[in-house]
């Protein structure tokens, strides 16, 4: 069993915004309605979504490469190093995606590293309206250093 340790999520969150093609308009509408709150945080996005957020809403975004080309994996790697604090991922439940394994891996990593994820507008509304959204928050993550120590002692 993996031991856990407590860390603090900063008040200024690092938020990943991701949307499948059929959901990009929904995400843009949601972001536009929450722009004043989101501008107070650091925003990351997969490629196409990031460029849409910059060009259509003027949001300052760190754009990764496109999701199918590895952008989901880039966000996943950032989850493991605590460089992403929250994921808003409007995924399309009605369309099979060629990069479904990447999406599943991203969601798995978010669960492993105890990162809040919203996969639809209602959950995103709950996250952004939470009193924890704009405050520092203590939470637990896997204690990887402890895991390594135990593995190298045997």
Give a structural overview:
The protein is of the alpha/beta class. It has one domain: Methylglyoxal synthase-like domain (Rossmann fold), CATH 3.40.50.1380. Helix content is 44%, strand content 21%. Strand 5, helix 5 and strand 6 form a beta-alpha-beta unit. Helix 1 packs across helix 3. Its EC number is 4.2.3.3. It comes from Nitrincola tibetensis. Catalyzes the formation of methylglyoxal from dihydroxyacetone phosphate.
Topology overview:
Blueprint (H helix, E strand, L loop, with lengths): L3 E6 L4 E6 L4 H10 L1 H4 L3 E4 L1 H11 L3 E3 L7 H10 L5 E5 L9 H13 L4 E2 L2 H9 L7 E6 L1 H10 L1
Parallel strand pairs: 2-3, 2-5, 3-4, 5-6
Antiparallel strand pairs: 1-7
Helix pairs in contact: 1-3, 4-5
Protein name: Methylglyoxal synthase
Keywords: Lyase
Catalytic activity: dihydroxyacetone phosphate = methylglyoxal + phosphate
């Amino acid at each position: 069993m993996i031991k856990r340790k407590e860390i603090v999520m900063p008040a200024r969150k690092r938020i990943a915004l991701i949307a499948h093609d059929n959901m990009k308009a929904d995400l843009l509408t949601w972001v536009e309605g929450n722009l004043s709150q989101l501008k107070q945080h650091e925003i990351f996005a997969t490629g196409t979504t990031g460029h849409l957020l910059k060009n259509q809403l003027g949001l300052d975004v760190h754009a990764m490469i496109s999701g199918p080309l590895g952008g989901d994996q880039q966000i996943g790697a950032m989850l493991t190093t605590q460089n992403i604090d929250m994921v808003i991922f409007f995924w399309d439940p009605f369309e099979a995606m060629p990069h479904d394994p990447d999406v599943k891996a991203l969601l798995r990593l978010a669960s492993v590293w105890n990162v809040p994820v919203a996969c639809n507008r209602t959950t995103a509304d709950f996250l952004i309206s939470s009193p924890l959204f704009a405050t520092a928050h203590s939470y637990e993550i896997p204690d990887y250093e402890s895991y390594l120590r135990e593995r190298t002692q045997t």
